[in-house]
Design brief:
Order of helices and strands: EEEHEEEEEHHHHEHHEEHHEHEHEE
Number of strands: 15
Shape: globular
Number of domains: 2
Strand order of the largest sheet: 2-1-4-5-6-7
Largest sheet: 6 strands, antiparallel
Number of helices: 11
Helix content: 40-55%
Strand content: 15-25%
Radius of gyration: 22 Å
Distance between the termini: 27 Å
CATH topology of the largest domain: Glutathione S-transferase Yfyf (Class Pi), Chain A, domain 2
Structural class: alpha/beta
């Protein structure tokens, strides 16, 4: 899986520019604030229909323009695919091979992508929201069923939370079982898929972590809450937990149990990384998780995703930079940096210099 061409028009600080990418390492280099990360963001947006940097799509439109237009011409194992997005002030339109898609689930899987930047250290350091986001983005790209279940779960969860704020307690108690039955149905799909994902992720993560640290530390990944059985069993367990928490949910005004509250534990050398990992340990663990994600895509889809590394090399010491280049040798990678010669160490690549939103020879 690889992107051949990327066209940006009125996207962020790009007026009109076309990138040609090769199958291996592609390096976007230049001074800070020139548009390197904007290009990387466009790639991820066309893969997933979302940006990791902003909440509202209108922020992607170049100042003074009415709309942004971005296009990726790619190739996966099924053949060529073209993805286009027109982004307006209050709406957007995404097309795959010329056909407008009705929902984001129809975009997933055409071009899989893994994105890593220094900001991804939040995956280890911050609260459970970041780790759930990591799982949601990754699993959704290979499982439309998961993405659909996630959307429906969140919609029902919002309705349940609204109900819990009602002043009529008898109405709440009469209505909750109706919402809970639907909630548990979709929760079971989410929980089961996450468990399968973590089961694949854990051995890869430890392998990469050992490679990056020269075998110095063990890394283990596991869910903070263990669910047993199939989806029907999980739904039944969750239904009982919801019922047991009625009083607490009524008091607090929101749903206190379910996959929207679950987390995963990252353990380095037998110690909880969230509480005790150093900055260097955190950086290495986060990178190991992202490289593991690449391998999972390869296992599930039969081909590597597009790997986007935004300003990652500046955060790594020399040995880890060289190890990272070895790890990504077979993956189409779009890497941004300020000084290409300081991070390549003789690696063959397609170098593209960016200056003020333009490609420079």
């Amino acid at each position: 899986m690889q992107i051949k061409k990327l066209f940006l028009q009125n996207f962020r600080n790009y007026e009109s520019e076309q990138f040609a990418f090769t199958e291996g390492l592609n390096v976007l280099f230049g001074k800070n604030a020139q548009g390197k990360t904007n290009c990387a963001e466009a790639v991820f947006y066309l893969c997933t229909g979302a940006s990791l940097r902003i909440r509202h799509d209108k922020q992607l439109i170049r100042i003074g323009a009415e709309k942004a237009h971005i296009v990726a011409e790619a190739e996966n194992r099924y053949g060529r695919v073209t993805i286009e997005a027109d982004i307006y002030e209050n709406k957007r339109e995404i097309r795959v091979n010329g056909s407008k898609i009705a929902k984001n689930a129809d975009l997933m899987g055409h071009i899989n992508s893994v994105f890593f930047s220094p900001g991804e250290l939040r995956l280890i350091q911050d609260g459970p929201d970041e780790r759930r986001r990591f799982m949601n983005i990754s699993i959704s790209q290979t499982s439309p069923a998961y993405y659909t279940a996630l959307l429906r779960y969140n919609k029902i969860l919002d309705q349940r939370n609204t109900l819990l704020k009602n002043n009529d307690v008898s109405l709440i108690l009469d209505t909750l079982p109706v919402w809970d039955e639907q909630l548990c149905k979709y929760a079971a799909i989410i929980i089961k898929k996450r468990a399968e994902f973590l089961e694949k992720l854990a051995p890869y993560a430890n392998e990469y972590h050992r490679f990056l640290t020269d075998g110095g530390e063990e890394l283990s990944i596991k869910p903070d809450r263990k669910y047993e059985g199939d989806e029907e069993d999980i739904a039944a367990v969750l239904m009982r937990r919801l019922e047991n928490n009625y009083e607490k949910d009524l008091r607090l005004g929101f749903t206190t149990v379910g996959p929207h509250r679950d987390d995963l534990d990252v353990i380095i050398g037998g110690v909880d990384a969230k509480a005790y990992a150093s900055q260097g340990q955190t950086r290495t663990a986060a990178l190991a998780l992202k490289l593991s994600e690449v391998q999972i895509f390869k296992t599930l889809s039969g081909e590597y995703p597009v790997l986007v590394l935004d300003d990652v090399m500046s955060e790594l010491d020399l040995p880890r930079r060289k190890k990272l280049l070895k790890c990504i040798a077979d993956v189409q990678t779009i890497l941004t940096c300020t000084h290409a010669e300081r991070v390549l160490y003789g690696a063959e690549c397609n170098k593209i210099r960016i200056e003020n939103g333009k490609i420079k020879a």
